[in-house]
Amino acid sequence: MTIGFDRDSWDAHWRDADGDEAEGPTTPTPYLVQAAEAGPPGSALDAGCGTGTDAVWLAEHGWHVTGVDIAPTALERGARRAAVAEVPDAVTWVAADLTTWEPERRFDLVTTAYAHATIPQLALYERIGGWVAPGGTLLVVGHRHGSHHRHDAAPPEEAMVGAADVAALFDGPDWRVDRAEEPRREIVRRSGPVVLHDVVVRATRLP
Which residue from 138, 150, 139, 128 is spatially nearest to 196, judged by alpha carbons? Predict the structure, then answer.
């Protein structure tokens, strides 16, 4: 991959962040809220959890969460967020590289939002999908366009893939693709409103 998405790059990204970027989003990813509310809480993995906004929201709503990220600085902020939300014991924080880490179990819900690693994006999603328990849900949320991305450089082509390409990874007898869309939504930062063009794929691993 042509851009640094390794541990040092991501940790520097979080250390150097300020303003809206320093603590990450203040509200959970809306697609995650929809997916999580579709069934009873259970075990969840937030792959590339950043500062833990989604992980903590899940914990607040009864999920037992594992949050994995390559950047220790982001995880420290996530742990503080969980403590403020009074769910410090409901989230297990793991500093690890998603390209090499292997969970000890599968999860009822595996979610990844705007995560990039040192392997092509589709390879990352395929790997993450292997951690979903039978009957469980996979939620992939990504960037369709990167003009709003505030990493040190624009994401390379292989870091931005379409919903159809992601859905095709799970077009087989073991999966049912429930959603494959590229919606736009507006978020508000201190600098003003920003329109995000997202990629959203939700799939169920069949029992």
Answer: 150
Q: Which two tokens stand for residue 123?
A: 């390879």
Residue 66 has pLDDT above 50, yes or no: yes
Give kind and range of the element (H or E) at residue 46.
strand 43-47
Residue 75 CA, distance from chain mean position: 13
Nearest to 179 by CA among 31, 45, 27, 29: 31
Concatenate the DSSP letters of all residues of 31-44 into one string. Answer: HHHHHHTTS---EE
What does the domain layout of the chain look like in residue ranges?
7-205
pTM of the model: 0.85
* Distance from C-alpha of 68 to C-alpha of 132, rounded to nearest angstrom: 15
Give the relative orientation of helices 72-84 and 53-60 as an angle to the nearest 10 degrees: 30
Whether 46 and 65 have beta carbons less than 8 Å apart is answered as: yes
Q: In Å, how far from its chain's centre is CA 200?
A: 11
Cα–Cα distance, 69 to 46 (Å, whole number) = 9
Question: And the tokens for 163?
Answer: 């919903």
Answer yes or no: are the C-beta atoms of 106 and 131 closer than 8 Å. Answer: yes
| Element housing 142 (H / E) | strand 132-143
For residue 43, the cross-strand partners are 64
How far apart, in whole angstroms, are the C-alpha atoms of residue 39 and residue 49? 21
Tens of pLDDT along 72-94?
999 999 999 999 999 999 999 99
CATH 3.40.640.10 assigned to domain 7-205? The reply is no
Q: How far is CA 116 from CA 37, 41, 123, 151, in A?
A: 26, 27, 11, 11
